[in-house]
């Protein structure tokens, strides 16, 4: 059996990750355990405890003592290395990255092995794939530990480099085959995955000073940019450009010179002209089909500028942005992000304070851009990140390490310097762990003769074989430049330097949209951690920021990718190999890294949480309400128009639960209300998750209840459809026996709430919850539905007065969460708990306390909040309405409503929301309203996702509820473009948040009114009163309408 298992493992080595994961889904626990390499660390007590704890997951009928006997026999026959396992150094050619999430189906919570790519000096490997590393249950380990803890960080926009004029001129002179190699190497599917680029209005790596000559820029630089963009477009991707300017022309400056820089910089009478030129420059790129993603207000504004610059204090830059550039740029290009820029640590926190408090600039800037990194820089940036978690940081130019770099003797343009590659990785790790949303290198490519062209001649030693002085250190060390690719124009060859491969370990695997997941590397060094801190002195030298060696120990960073895989990058700059444990929740892997090497581990996000570690970029989902549980207002022709209030009454009026007419009516509805075509449209729009409300009778059927049986067949069919599309599902117990809320159609029967007051209903409801959990387990055991269900919601919208009764909501949750966890472990399933409280203080405090008191059971337990703008706040008779009311509620009030959850570090999901307001808004309003809500969810710490209510409403033509029917709102039928075309990175883009009224999170109600501060027209009665709207058949609130 062991030989067969080994052969199977060998045959899977070259298979795609999805195939290997499926293959491992079979009953092979013994092979899994025997694959674990460090046999010397497995003692009999561990084995017995291990199988006692986990046998119900995999063991089946295999006896515990038989397993122990087999393992002990094997251990006695082996001679393990005292230093631990050695990773096999089989070199594979780079293979395609794993398939997207959804193609991987598995049962075991340990997940498939991690795939490993390595670049190492001693073996000459350059992003070569290694043997997989197996996950096992966590084990004791005396050595470095890379611990992936799961808390959420920033979203990555991408990696890239600068399309400087120097790079463009070198690119233009290359032979066509070498041009293609450069493009494919950076931007192609087999390259290192660049998706960001930077363009500069002027700069040092150009042939001369600023001339305001767009024609030259279009002739020289744009062909390079357009070619790169085409390579990405052919892959279905897009190039995102950062635009930055260095200096206005000399006639606009107070000293009438390009260099040296002047302070103050701009002549007052031309400031507006310079701002307008900046905007028109951005527009010129848009007209070329190259939309600018972001801009920095100024490239370098410090006194140490080595070329043309515009010296501005943080306050001057903020005034220029708030008064001149910001309004013009937003009017022309509202989706372009704006970053304050700084060049050193002494200004970082001053800029951050302006980002918070400047009266006008704060509404335009999304964060700070920085160049280079020193120990002080990163510490300041980390403080900024802690103080302003929503502020975006951007490493906009990897320059600091090279300006201080010391070339080793013997380096050539063809080989580059290995240590420089390590230092690149060291700085990237520091930037990412400090919170950077992207990383941009300086020149994409330069020539090897003059390291340029460069018009200010700030490269003193152009060749890489530098002269050395008496102390064997290179002269003029402060201005030596390199690039990941360097061209020898005499031969037409392009050389890839080591940093190209070190960068690739990040840019190739950490995809745009990936979320930083906190990880720590402990025990790697006696003096340093992996969070990018710099040494003060090493081996007698003065400090060398950017350098990396053994004193830095094991360094790491981890990101959760949009496809659901985790990417962990590990760096070892020391002279000795390091054995370490890769720890993720309750599972771990024993790994090792050679000296002077970097590795990337890619593995499924199993073992911690089903919802992207309860963090990451929030998913966007939709409800399938009105399908397996009918609500009268959602099927007006069959129910509301016939005075039928609930599903129970509908069934009775069609003959009862077993009558053919009732069965046929429901089965036809189940068959047609959700279709594969619907799923295809929703997936294309950007929906990844669905929430399916069901009634208790689906899992605990009794014909005497008066409902029709058979809905589960259609639910299983839906899960199969979701599986092939890579979509996920939460099952929501929407109706409980006796009704959990009074007079609500969603409880199945419109009646007084008796679930919490009649003991038999309460006990039966608890049994239904367990039966639903058992049904989910059965889905997990079927290959066609495994991995689709990621969560269970115990009850929908229970009446809040029952919170502290007995029985009551609190008692129900505290009783059922541990019982559900016996069937649905937290590494694989979320439990959603709904709280209909206002303000959101009691339930959030309780959940925070339970997570602290019982972390094993309450891991992946999520607070479900329903956010509607149609429960009393917009429906007061005579109240005037206009779109600014709801933008105020979304942008100003709702953050305060949800703040108690974020403050208590409680994970949350928006289980229901819509575009309903009480007024039938116009199409442009729907787009703004939808974007504002999604951007709000994305900005709140702890938010795991949202479910729009609903995918479809069966309504009278031209009647109610279009604003709650996503399929009607989506293009081409409606105004909403795909989510990918919306800017969700900036909360409520286009709204001046400094005009928000102030709300107390501990007291604000979800029905509170909201009026923008300032100009009266922001909240004047520009719309119709609710009374008028009701008279015209407008939607008023969920479950109610009027003709």
TrEMBL record:
Cleavable signal peptide: none
Domain Glycosyl hydrolase family 30 TIM-barrel: 156-463
Bias kind Basic and acidic residues: ranges: 1032-1043
Domain of life: Eukaryota
Bias type Low complexity, positions: 520-530
Protein source organism: Alexandrium monilatum
Family: Belongs to the glycosyl hydrolase 30 family.
A Pfam family recorded for this sequence: Glyco_hydro_30C
Biased composition annotated in UniProt, kind: Basic residues: 531-544
Domain Glycoside hydrolase family stretches: 666-915
GO biological process terms, semicolon-separated: glucosylceramide catabolic process; polysaccharide catabolic process
Domain Glycosyl hydrolase family 30 beta sandwich: 551-601
The keyword DNA-binding is annotated on this UniProt entry: no
TM segment ranges: 57-79
Gene Ontology molecular function: any one: glucosylceramidase activity
Keyword vocabulary terms for this entry: Glycosidase, Hydrolase, Membrane, Signal, Transmembrane, Transmembrane helix
Protein name: Glycoside hydrolase family 5 domain-containing protein
Region named Disordered: 520-552, 1021-1043
Cellular component annotations (GO), alphabetically ordered: membrane
């Amino acid at each position: 059996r062991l030989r067969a298992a080994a052969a199977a493992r060998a045959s899977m080595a070259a298979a795609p990750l999805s195939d290997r994961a499926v293959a491992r889904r079979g009953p092979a626990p013994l092979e899994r355990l025997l694959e674990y390499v460090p046999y010397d660390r497995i003692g009999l007590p561990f084995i017995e405890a291990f199988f006692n704890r986990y046998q119900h997951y995999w063991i089946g009928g295999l006896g515990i003592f038989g397993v122990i006997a087999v393992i002990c026999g094997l251990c006695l026959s082996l001679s393990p290395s005292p230093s631990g396992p050695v990773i096999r150094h089989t070199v594979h050619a780079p293979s395609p990255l794993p398939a997207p999430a959804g193609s991987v189906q598995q049962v075991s919570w340990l997940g498939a092995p991690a795939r490993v790519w390595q670049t190492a000096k001693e073996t000459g490997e350059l992003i070569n794939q290694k043997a997989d590393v197996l996950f096992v249950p966590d084990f004791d380990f005396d050595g470095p530990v890379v611990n992936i803890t799961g808390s959420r960080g920033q979203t990555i926009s991408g990696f890239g480099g600068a399309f400087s004029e120097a790079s463009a001129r070198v690119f233009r002179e290359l032979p066509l085959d070498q041009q293609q190699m450069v493009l494919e190497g950076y931007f192609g599917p087999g390259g290192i995955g660049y998706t960001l680029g930077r363009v500069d209005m002027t700069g040092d790596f150009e042939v001369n000073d600023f001339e305001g000559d767009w024609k030259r820029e279009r002739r020289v630089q744009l062909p390079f940019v357009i070619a790169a963009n085409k390579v990405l477009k052919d892959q279905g991707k897009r190039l995102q450009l950062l635009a930055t300017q260095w200096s206005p022309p000399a006639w606009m400056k107070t000293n009438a010179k390009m260099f040296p820089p002047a302070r103050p910089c701009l002549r007052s009478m031309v400031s507006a002209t310079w701002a307008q030129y900046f905007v028109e420059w951005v527009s010129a790129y848009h007209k070329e089909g190259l939309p600018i993603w972001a801009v920095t207000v100024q490239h370098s504004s410090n006194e140490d500028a080595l070329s043309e610059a515009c010296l501005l204090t943080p306050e001057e830059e903020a005034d220029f942005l708030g008064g001149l550039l910001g309004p013009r740029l937003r009017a022309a290009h509202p989706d372009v992000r704006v970053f304050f820029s700084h060049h050193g640590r002494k200004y970082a926190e001053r800029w951050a304070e302006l980002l918070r408090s400047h009266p006008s600039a704060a509404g335009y800037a999304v964060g700070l851009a920085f160049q280079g990194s020193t120990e002080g820089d990163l510490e300041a940036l980390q403080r900024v990140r802690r103080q302003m978690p929503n502020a975006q940081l951007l490493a906009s130019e990897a320059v600091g390490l090279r300006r201080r770099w010391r070339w080793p003797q013997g380096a050539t343009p063809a080989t580059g310097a290995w240590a420089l590659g390590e230092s690149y990785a060291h700085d990237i790790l520091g930037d990412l762990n400090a919170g950077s949303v992207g990383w941009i290198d300086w020149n994409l490519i330069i020539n090897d003769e003059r390291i340029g062209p460069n018009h200010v001649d700030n490269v003193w030693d152009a060749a890489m074989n530098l002269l050395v002085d008496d102390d064997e250190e290179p002269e003029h060390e402060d201005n030596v430049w390199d690039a990941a690719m360097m061209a020898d124009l005499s031969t037409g060859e392009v050389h890839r330097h080591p940093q190209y491969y070190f960068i690739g370990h990040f840019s190739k695997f950490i995809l745009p949209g990936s979320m930083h997941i906190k990880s720590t590397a402990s025990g790697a060094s006696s003096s340093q951690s992996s969070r990018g801190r710099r040494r003060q002195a090493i081996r007698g030298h003065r400090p060398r920021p950017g350098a990396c060696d053994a004193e830095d120990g094991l360094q790491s960073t981890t990101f959760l990718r949009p496809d659901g895989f985790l990417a962990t990058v590990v760096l070892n700059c020391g002279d000795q190999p390091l054995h370490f444990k890769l720890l993720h929740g309750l599972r771990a892997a024993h790994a090792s890294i050679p000296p002077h090497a970097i590795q990337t581990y890619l593995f499924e996000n199993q073992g911690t949480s089903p919802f992207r570690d309860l963090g990451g970029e929030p998913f966007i989902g939709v409800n399938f309400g009105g399908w397996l549980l009918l609500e009268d207002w959602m099927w007006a022709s069959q129910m509301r128009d016939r005075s039928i209030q609930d599903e129970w009454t509908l069934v009775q009026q069609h003959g009862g639960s077993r009558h053919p007419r009732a069965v046929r009516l429901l089965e036809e509805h189940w068959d047609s209300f959700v279709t594969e075509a619907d799923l295809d449209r929703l997936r294309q729009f950007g929906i990844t998750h669905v929430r399916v409300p069901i009634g208790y009778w689906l899992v605990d059927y009794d014909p005497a209840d008066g409902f029709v049986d058979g809905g589960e067949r259609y639910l299983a069919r839906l899960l199969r459809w979701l599986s092939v599309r890579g979509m996920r599902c939460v099952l929501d117990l929407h109706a409980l026996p006796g009704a959990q809320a009074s007079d609500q159609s969603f409880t199945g029967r419109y009646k007084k709430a008796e679930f919490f007051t009649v003991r038999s209903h309460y006990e039966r409801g608890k049994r239904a919850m367990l039966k639903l959990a058992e049904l989910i387990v059965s889905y997990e055991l079927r290959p066609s539905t495994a991995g689709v269900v990621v969560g269970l919601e115990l009850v929908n919208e229970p009446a809040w007065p029952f919170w502290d009764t007995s029985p009551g909501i609190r008692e129900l949750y505290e009783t059922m969460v541990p019982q559900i966890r016996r069937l649905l472990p937290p590494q694989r399933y979320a439990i959603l708990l709904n709280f209909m409280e206002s303000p959101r203080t009691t339930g959030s405090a309780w959940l925070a306390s339970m997570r602290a008191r019982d972390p094993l059971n309450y891991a992946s337990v999520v607070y479900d909040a329903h956010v509607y703008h149609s429960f009393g706040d917009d429906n007061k008779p005579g109240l005037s309405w206009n779109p600014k009311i709801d933008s105020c509620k979304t942008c100003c009030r709702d953050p305060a409503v949800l703040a108690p959850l974020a403050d208590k570090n409680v994970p949350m999901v928006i289980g229901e929301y819509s575009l309903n307001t009480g007024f039938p808004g116009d199409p442009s309003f729907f787009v703004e309203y939808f974007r504002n809500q999604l951007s709000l969810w994305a900005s709140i710490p702890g938010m795991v996702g949202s479910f729009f209510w609903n995918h479809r409403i069966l309504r009278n033509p031209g009647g109610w509820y279009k604003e709650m029917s996503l399929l009607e709102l989506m293009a081409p039928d409606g105004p909403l473009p795909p989510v990918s075309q919306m800017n969700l990175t900036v909360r409520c883009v286009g709204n001046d948040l400094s005009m928000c009224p102030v709300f107390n999170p501990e007291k604000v109600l979800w029905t509170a009114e909201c009026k923008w501060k300032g100009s009266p027209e922001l909240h004047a009665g520009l719309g119709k009163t609710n009374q008028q709207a009701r008279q015209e058949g407008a939607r008023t609130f969920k479950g109610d309408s009027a003709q």
